[in-house]
Design a protein that fits this description.
alpha+beta, 11 helices, five-stranded mixed β-sheet
Length: about 425
């Protein structure tokens, strides 16, 4: 399921970004190509102005000058004197150059089809000259050209000069620019896809982890509830045919297992409230040393029943007040002491201590019990997680440390576990 979501999110993220990038690239290409055409046309117009000025200053138009101008500007010239082609055109209109004459004729037709106003034909020259520039597509070659027709009245003759400039170099430049943009866009789309895959993977990672924990939580809760429920159902079935002297034992079993189920459900509700941001914490100034002493007195009889030495170490100087919820912090201390007593063998030692340093309170529960392996320390606060040695303990569901962790986190504190000197574990709550 998550893999399909991962793929779809990747395609969505990369697709939207790629579409935006392609649209922006097309807009840039349009503006760039339009600017290139406009600049090229303006450059052609400037060259025609220069050519017209040179023609006006010359009394003789030589073939050498025409060849030189064609070579310099990559232009084609076609000159008519009184409607009669120059010898220059006739000399170039042989063999493969016959296409040249056809092209120039197409230019004249295009010029004749263009509507030109009198203002566009006017010239400030002392000679009666004018020129007009336009763009056309050759029917014979399919190529695009800029064309200009220069009309000059010089002495008693009438001169018409057609100048052509091929747009093939410009179109080749534009095609190269498009090709480069295609390569850049393809590379960018590939990188975007890779980035989107990694980015969406990071986004989905906490969701996948939360889903995994939820599935594990439901499975573990079902397993924990099934055992006492099976015992209750079995005892209830036995009550139907059991003699009166054994009935009380079965009822006691039902009551005990019912209390176990109630405790488990209460723990699950506590964690559920934490998940839904409805975890009730009512902090107020409290004396932590007094709170720890009350917890010590409450658990000392339980420790003595297991022949465990429970001790408490408190600072000699008065401690400042701590802003915390006394009931919740007492619950944390109870969980830690209850675990310590459960997993510490007879004649063991448990030490409850408190000290204050740099505006932080350090509350610790140290035992010399079975200890916790390094690979289990990272998971010890996970819900329903229990190390292998404690699975036989009937009164522990693996939720106590999870509840303690949520309580401490709600107070803005931290809880840590480490190996104690000489064996066992030490849990430290920092507030």
């Amino acid at each position: 399921m998550f893999r399909k979501v991962h793929i779809r999110l990747t395609l969505l993220c990369a697709g939207i970004t790629a579409v935006i990038m392609i649209i922006m690239s097309l807009c840039y290409l349009y503006v760039s190509e339009t600017g290139l055409y406009r600049n090229q046309f303006q450059s052609f117009q400037n060259d025609i102005n220069t050519i017209t000025t040179n023609l006006e200053q010359q009394s003789v138009i030589s073939m050498e000058w025409l060849s030189k101008m064609e070579a310099q500007g990559n232009y084609l010239f076609y000159v008519l004197d009184g409607g009669i082609p120059f010898l220059y055109n006739q000399l170039n209109d042989t063999g493969e150059s016959s296409a040249r004459s056809l092209l120039l004729e197409e230019c004249r037709k295009a010029y004749q089809s263009v509507t030109i106003t009198d203002t566009e034909k006017q010239s400030d020259s002392s000679y009666l000259s004018s020129h007009f520039e336009f763009e056309f597509v050759s029917e014979s070659t399919g190529s695009r050209y800029f064309g200009s027709v220069i009309s000059m009245g010089k002495y008693a003759s009438s001169l018409e000069i057609i100048v052509l400039s091929s747009l093939q170099p410009l179109e080749q430049q534009i095609m190269e620019q498009r090709f480069h943009f295609i390569l850049i866009d393809l590379a960018a789309i590939f990188l975007l896809t890779v980035f989107s895959w990694l980015f969406t993977g990071l986004l989905l990672k906490p969701i996948m982890e939360n889903h995994r924990k939820q599935v594990q939580f439901v499975a573990s809760a079902s397993h924990e509830l099934r055992t006492p429920l099976a015992v209750i159902l079995s005892a209830a079935e036995c009550c139907k045919s059991a003699p009166s002297e054994k009935l009380e034992g079965f009822l006691k079993t039902i009551s005990q297992e019912g209390l176990r189920m109630s405790a488990l459900v209460n723990d699950m509700l506590t964690l559920s409230g934490s998940d839904n941001q409805r975890f009730s914490v009512r902090p107020k100034p409290i004396e932590l040393d007094t709170l720890l002493m009350n917890s010590y007195e409450a658990f000392d009889p339980l420790a003595q029943d297991k022949s465990i030495a429970l001790s408490i170490i408190l600072p000699e100087k008065a401690l400042p007040l701590c802003s915390a919820d006394p009931e919740r912090i007492s619950q944390v201390v109870s969980i830690l002491l209850h675990n310590a007593i459960s997993y510490t063998p007879e004649h063991g030692r448990i030490e409850l201590s408190l000290f204050h340093k740099k505006e932080h309170f350090y509350l610790s529960v140290k035992d010399n019990g079975i200890g916790i392996a390094d690979e289990d320390k990272k998971k010890i606060f996970d819900r329903f997680y229990r190390v292998e040695k404690s699975r036989s303990t009937k009164d522990h569901f693996g939720l106590g440390l999870s509840i303690a962790y949520e309580i401490v986190k709600a107070h803005g504190g931290n809880i840590q576990v480490a190996d104690a000197d000489g064996g066992g574990s030490i849990f430290t709550v920092i507030l």
